């Protein structure tokens, strides 16, 4: 899920300022390497982390009912019952008419979840999932 830069930029500036403060950097020093060294996810990736964590809880049956009811597993779609995707841990993304609809959990949650590798979908232990998810997103943000 992509939020507009006008929404993410102020939050990223706060994170950058916190990194500068922790590392005692000057106001004009670059913070990317510091954020990497602190093992902090950039704001956009942190949002994805939270969405995927909520979807993990939906997937293992530990999420609140209102979240479970807001998404549809691909395996529960009748028209897909004979397809290979019916045995996957993927979720349907509803059609939206506006960009605002893409910010709802029913769209953004499945979009973030479906972008993960299948090996993460299969994890049932939440602590293990969080560790592997952060590593995956950290690699996506900063490279290997």
Structure at a glance:
With 144 residues, this protein is an all-alpha fold. The chain is built from seven helices and two strands.
Can you tell me about this structure?
- With 144 residues, the protein is mainly α.
- The chain is built from 7 helices and 2 strands, in the order H-H-H-H-E-E-H-H-H.
- It has helices spanning 5-23, 32-38, 43-59, 65-68, 105-114, 118-121, 126-142; strands spanning 72-73, 91-92.
- A two-stranded antiparallel ribbon has the order 1-2.
- Helix 3 (43-59) runs antiparallel to helix 7.
- The mean pLDDT is 90.
Number of strands: 2
**Helical region count?**
7
Q: What's the number of domains?
A: 1
What is the gyration radius calculated from CA atoms? 17 Å
Strand content is: under 5%
Question: What would the principal axes of the Cα set say about the shape?
Answer: globular
Uncertain residue segments:
none
Largest sheet: 2 strands, antiparallel
- SSE series: HHHHEEHHH
The secondary structure category is mainly alpha
The helical percent reads: 40-55%
The mean pLDDT is 90
Main sheet: which strands, in order across? 1-2
Measured distance between first and last alpha carbons: 22 Å
Note the topology.
Blueprint (H helix, E strand, L loop, with lengths): L4 H19 L8 H7 L4 H17 L5 H4 L3 E2 L17 E2 L12 H10 L3 H4 L4 H17 L2
Antiparallel strand pairs: 1-2
Spell out the key features of this protein.
144 residues, mainly alpha, two-stranded antiparallel sheet, 7 helices, 2 strands, globular
């Amino acid at each position: 899920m992509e939020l507009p830069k006008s929404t993410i930029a102020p939050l990223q500036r706060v994170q950058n300022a916190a990194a500068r403060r922790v590392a005692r950097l000057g106001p004009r020093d670059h913070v990317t390497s510091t954020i990497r060294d602190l093992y902090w996810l950039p704001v956009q990736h942190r949002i994805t982390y939270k969405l995927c964590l909520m979807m993990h809880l939906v997937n293992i049956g530990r999420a609140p009912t209102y979240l479970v009811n807001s998404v549809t597993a691909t395996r529960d779609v009748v028209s897909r019952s004979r397809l290979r995707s019916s045995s996957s841990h993927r979720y349907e993304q509803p059609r939206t008419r506006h960009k605002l609809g893409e910010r709802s959990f029913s769209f953004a949650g499945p979009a973030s979840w479906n972008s993960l590798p299948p090996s993460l979908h299969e994890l049932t232990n939440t602590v293990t999932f969080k560790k592997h998810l952060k590593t995956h997103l950290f690699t996506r943000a900063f490279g290997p």
